[in-house]
């Protein structure tokens, strides 16, 4: 079987860094003791206490998404350089690491997916919970029927000034924050309301039922998406907010920043 | 007649007392254990570090307390036996010991109780504070624990006759010091949070309103307990809530 080592050895020979996606503690130990190239741990949480760690906002199911996000985050944090050859070890079929792929870090292929979390106005944890909420909502729908929803996160003061109420704001004088246990249930009920949810930088639910009035000039979103996406995308161009949209028709969750589509995930895959 | 002389012999009486003491001590220990178990003490102390330490030593809180009462009675029996046998013929010693032994017993009991109550209080307070999402809050349960421990130590020391007044004075000084320094250091925070509570409850302005506080004008971006964030075109002002009351709030309407 020496031939197999030769052939597959090319995949991880002379790499500049090794990226471990969600390794277990003992797996990580084996790398730090034996290996002398850089080890970068990527995961939703730094369970293994690694020195160089890139946080994933979601457990991306799509491997290429996961790897791309990890690399973009690592580039952003300067733990790897443009043009580095990386061995990315991740899990595809089981919970343990079972796959290695060789990827070249390319700073030009920047999609902004990492910026969406790390460099937005709102706190990363807030964006993460809203995204999880949208995915949850997309998975279950409201009483089994698919629902659409539009969340505008961050820069709430400006967003409020570029929108008007469609009806009474159910969150008037309330102090509900994204991430509170009650919120999922509440939003599931409120998701039948028309209009957008406005969420502040710190995660406060400012309003529901908002009709967004941005100028839609120059917004470039894929054709075929409806008014909800257009409104969400456009407001992110006018303000520093980001928009997280759950589509009613195709059930996908999309995130917009600065008028551009940054992230597209299928809730069914999580 | 031989029986009579035998019974009158102090050594025999002493031995009898000793034996009786051992039996009674053992029985009291068992009884205590049963009583404590029946009254739900094991459930109450479960999860406290004291209980865990006891478990790791192969025993339990209930057992320790029961053992303690046994030892107490053993101790009394031994001393009585010594007295009867007149091994140590000093009334003064006897007097001291009878005074001292119950106190030591109570002191140890108070200490054990203190440890358990302290641990329990820590657990309850941290449970209560769990919904408060501030890492700094974890100090408070520990503070409660050590306060309870301190008081327990004071009581225990007082029991065995240690002069505790200086310690009490120390406690008072620390407490007043903490309060005084706290109010000085956190004065602005306290005033701001008082104002913040009003702002959060009444919401004279909300996110998205255009307001002016003193010289700073802009759109409200965030209102929390301590500060209000106002943003105009280029700058974001973070205004302490006490300012909101010192200067007036102007709601700007076009």
Automatic annotation (TrEMBL), chain A:
Cofactors required: Mn(2+)
Enzyme Commission number(s): 2.7.7.85
InterPro entries according to UniProt: DAC_DacZ, DacZ_N, Diadenylate_Cyclase_DacZ, DisA, DNA_integrity_DisA_N_sf, DNA_integrity_scan_DisA_N
Every DAC domain range: 110-267
Keyword ATP-binding: yes
Enzyme class: transferase
Reactions mediated catalytically: 2 ATP = 3',3'-c-di-AMP + 2 diphosphate
Keywords, sorted A to Z: ATP-binding, Manganese, Nucleotide-binding, Nucleotidyltransferase, Transferase
Highest taxon above the source species: Archaea
Pfam family, one: DACZ_N
Family membership noted in the UniProt record: Belongs to the adenylate cyclase family. DacZ subfamily.
HAMAP family recorded: DacZ (MF_00840)
UniProt protein name: Diadenylate cyclase
Gene that encodes it: dacZ
Automatic annotation (TrEMBL), chain B:
Gene3D superfamilies hit by this protein: 1.10.287.1260, 2.30.30.60
Main location: membrane
Gene Ontology molecular function, alphabetical: mechanosensitive monoatomic ion channel activity
Keywords: Membrane, Transmembrane, Transmembrane helix
Domain Mechanosensitive ion channel MscS: 194-249
Compartments it resides in: Membrane
RNA-binding found in the keyword field: no
Gene Ontology, cellular component aspect: membrane
InterPro entries xref list: LSM_dom_sf, MSC_TM_helix, MscS_archaea/bacteria_type, MscS_beta-dom_sf, MscS_channel_2nd, MscS_channel_TM-2
Membrane topology: Multi-pass membrane protein
Family annotation (SUPFAM superfamilies): Mechanosensitive channel protein MscS (YggB), transmembrane region (SSF82861), Sm-like ribonucleoproteins (SSF50182)
Transmembrane annotation, as ranges: 12-29, 71-88, 100-118, 139-157, 163-186
Family: Belongs to the MscS (TC 1.A.23) family.
Protein name as catalogued: Mechanosensitive ion channel family protein
UniProt organism field: Salinadaptatus halalkaliphilus
Taxon lineage: Archaea, Methanobacteriati, Methanobacteriota, Stenosarchaea group, Halobacteria
